[in-house]
Amino acid sequence: MGNMEMSTVSRVVKIGLCACGIWPYLPSTVLFRLFWIVMLGTAQYFQYQYIAVHFSTDNFSDLMDGVSSSMAYSLLFIKLSILWANQRTFSNILQMMAMDWKNCVSTDCSLRITTNKAKLSHRFSNWIIGLQLTAIVLYSCGVLAVNTGDVQRMNVSAREHILKMKLPFQIDTSPIYMLVTILEFLHLVMCGCGISLVNSLIVTLILHISGQIDILCDWLLNVFSKDMTHIVDEITMKTLIIKHQQIIMFSENIENLYTYITLILFVSDTLIICCLGFIIVTSIGTPDGPAILVRSVLFYVVINLEAFIYCFAGEYLTAKSQMIGNAAYDSLWYDICTIKKSRIILFIILRSQRRLTITIGKIMDLSLERFTSVVKASASYISVLLAMY
Q1: Which of 348, 72, 96, 376 is nearest to 224 (CA)?
Q2: What's the predicted TM-score (pTM) here?
Q3: pLDDT in tens, 273-285
Q4: What is the pLDDT of residue 149?
Q5: pLDDT tens-digit map of 292-323
């Protein structure tokens, strides 16, 4: 596949980002953003009304279910708002990615690395979106299974809804209930797609920059090779420095785009994981237990996976950035280079010691250690809730 036909951002993700109003400088962007604001704003108003009404009720599990789903969609709204506000940064990222694809034809190795990362990105994006949609279908089926399994729910007004919302009208007939259920399901699907698209985007960007780091490492190892057949004429000290600087700038743009998203995500995901864990534990052994487990377990897995994706992305970027210094050090620059070129290589090694990373609100680095801390914090909150329950 030629580089003009290929892109690190898959077609599905690109279409989704356009529909979410994230893709920069399109004529339809304002309309799509207005649609999401109205849709999410309306649903959130009714969701938080439900929480306010049921805050002091005895059914604590239902309250936790309402809190977890409401917070998940509040997080989506915040994610979209941050990405909308950083339209220029995202535009710069896309321009840099387009330039990388344009320049990767200089060597077969560069084209192969970039293409392989793009294919991997497309595969991961499909998995993330597919898993999110599967979780939504199972969540909806779990709610409907509770309704069919309970004799008291034969009364339409007593039936459970897919989304915990305090609607401003009474649902007392089956056609109205079916219509509301279909609309809630469609809302859930759209929100699920939005969540998975934002998560797929960070995976795409990290895989792209990792490909560029692999290209730079390959250049560093080959440009000073004693085997002259591997030396590429186009690779000079200037191109090495420019490539390294582009990687650093790309990493800084990812940081600016996602640092505050990760801050909000880690606060909210800890609470959402806690709520879902509480629902799962308390549902075991109850009459509605199997139906509740069907709708909650995969939702729990998806939320944990979201936190893991961001933490792994930060860890992976840090590990890949350290490879630049290792590749420069392992090359034969000390045998072949002039003193001036040797000093430049030393500067590359020194700069590589300052790791590339994504931070949580510019406070701490994203890493797998942070993911374990989220899981531990959620588990401790669950134990507290169970003691109070």
Answers
A1: 348
A2: 0.88
A3: 888 888 888 888 7
A4: 57
A5: 787 788 888 888 899 999 999 999 999 998 88
Q: Residue 160: is its pLDDT beyond 80?
A: no
Q: Which of 133, 315, 111 is nearest to 214 (CA)?
A: 111
Instruction: State the amino acid at position 332 in one-letter form.
Output: L
Q: State the Cα–Cα distance between residues 234 and 237, nearest whole angstrom.
A: 10
Q: How far apart are CA 149 and CA 163, in angstroms?
A: 18
User: What Rg, from alpha-carbon coordinates, does the chain have?
Assistant: 25
For residue 227, give both structure tokens: 């085997």
Distance in angstroms between the alpha carbons of the first and the last residue of the chain: 58
Closest Cα partner for 202 from 255, 130, 129, 270?
255
**Per-residue pLDDT tens over the stretch 32-43:** 999 999 999 999
- Give me 385's structure tokens: 């809730």
235: Cβ–Cβ under 8 A, 6 or more apart, which residues?
Answer: 219, 222, 223
**Tokens coding 171:** 């649902």
| DSSP structure string for 174-198 | HHHHHHHHHHHHHHHHHHHHHHHHH
For residues 370 and 364, is the Cβ–Cβ distance under 8 A? yes
